[in-house]
Design a protein that fits this description.
4-stranded mixed beta sheet
Length: 238
Amino acid sequence: IYVQHLLELPPNCRSFEITQACCGSAAALQMALAIVAQNPRKRVLIVASDEARYGLNTPGEPTQGAGAIAMVVSATPRLIVLDPESGSYTEDVMDFWRPNYLDEALVDGKFSMQMYIKALEASWNEYRRESGRGYEDCHYFCFHLPFTKMALKANLALARMSGMAEPDEALVTARHADSLHYNRVTGNSYTASLYVGLASLLENVSANLAGRRIGMFSYGSGCMASFFSGVICEDYRR
C-alpha cells in the first residue's frame, strides 16, 4: 500500500503482500503469471525488498546486506518470456528464523546450506519431469544467493545430477559467473537476491543473450523452493 501511494496508482489497484522468506518473490511472480494468463489485459507490478540483519560476530554477519527489485509482468514481455513449467519443494524445518524477541535473525548455516541443496535437487527434478528439459537446455543459471559462493555449490549439484561425475568447475562457473557481480556489492538481499542476480547476468554477459534460456532457483528458509526458467527476448538490451 505504501508503494501504491508513492507511485500514485489508482485506488482500484489491488495491493497485497506475500511473505515466504526469500522465496516470497518467486511466489508473487508465479501468482502474477496466473493473473495475466487469466486476463491478458492486466499487468502486475512486483516489488521485492529486504534487508538481512544478523548479530555482531555471528557466522551470518559477513553476508548481511540490503536490496530491492521491481518488475512488471504482462502478456507482452520485453525482457524474458517465462516458461510455464516449474518445480517446487516445501518442508517444515528450522534452518533460519527470527524470534519475536530478537531484532536479528538466527541461522544454522551448515544445516541451511544442506536444505538449500536438498530443495534445489527436489525442485529441479520436478522441473525436469514437467518440462522434459535437462541441464544443457539452460544456457545460464541464476540462484538465490545468501552468499556469492553458493551459486557454485548449487550449479555443481545440478551438473552432478545431470550425469557429470566430475564436472569441470570452470565450465560450470561460466554458466552463472556474470550473475554474481552485484551480490558482491549488496550482500544478501533476501527476496530480491535472485532477481538482482538476473539483472547482473543480463547487464554483464557480453554475448547476445536473445533466445537463450535462463534457469532460475529461488530458496526461502523454513523452507520453500522453486525452480523455473525463461527465454530472453530479442530486444532485451533496449
